[in-house]
Design a protein that fits this description.
This protein is mainly alpha-helical. The chain has two domains: about 50 residues; about 100 residues, Cytochrome c-like domain (Cytochrome Bc1 Complex, Chain D, domain 2, Orthogonal Bundle), CATH 1.10.760.10. Helix content is about 65%, strand content about 0%. The chain is built from seven helices and no strands. About 20% of the residues are buried.
């Protein structure tokens, strides 16, 4: 009987450890599942608010500004007459890749354009031009204008348009 008690003790200890490890694994797995579920929920909420929204009126203001400050280099239809196109396949390849935000686009336009005279327009004028560029590239207008707040613009991801 003594032999049974001595050999049974290490076995029972291993069993308790195994149960404890399984419990820890289940708890850790549950915590990770909750973490990733909440992360994907907040990301989904972000992309819900990340829809590109600009007003038609804002895009029309942007059109007038574009003609005045941008069309001489980028073409009347954003086709890139003498400079990079701001529409079509070139725009999609550069910007509509699910990685760039409207704030990224605004930063480039604001710090580099108009050529030789960067940052000479107001922030709102640049935002209006961006609204026009988005309209020409097939992004639908909404009722709200595109905000000029950098935090809001960073959450708006430029996604490829679905056919």
């Amino acid at each position: 009987m003594v032999i049974y008690a001595v050999t049974h003790r290490p076995f029972a200890l291993r069993q308790r450890r195994a149960v404890a490890f399984r419990r820890a694994g289940v708890i850790l797995g549950s915590v990770l599942l909750l973490f990733f579920a909440s992360a994907s929920t907040s990301r989904g909420e972000e992309s819900g608010t990340g829809e590109i929204v600009y007003s038609e009126e804002q895009a029309h203001k942007g059109h007038d500004l574009y003609e005045l400050h941008c069309a001489s280099c980028h073409g009347a239809a954003l086709e890139g007459q003498g400079s990079l196109p701001l529409s079509g396949a070139t725009f999609r390849a550069r910007w509509a890749d699910d990685r760039h935000s409207v704030d990224d686009l605004l930063y480039i336009v604001r710090t580099l354009m108009p050529y030789g005279q960067p940052a000479t327009l107001s922030k709102q004028e640049y935002v209006n031009i961006i609204a026009y560029i988005l309209m020409v590239n097939g992004y639908p207008a909404g009722t709200q204008p595109l905000p000029s707040d950098p935090g809001a613009l960073k959450r708006i991801i430029i996604k490829a348009q679905q056919p």
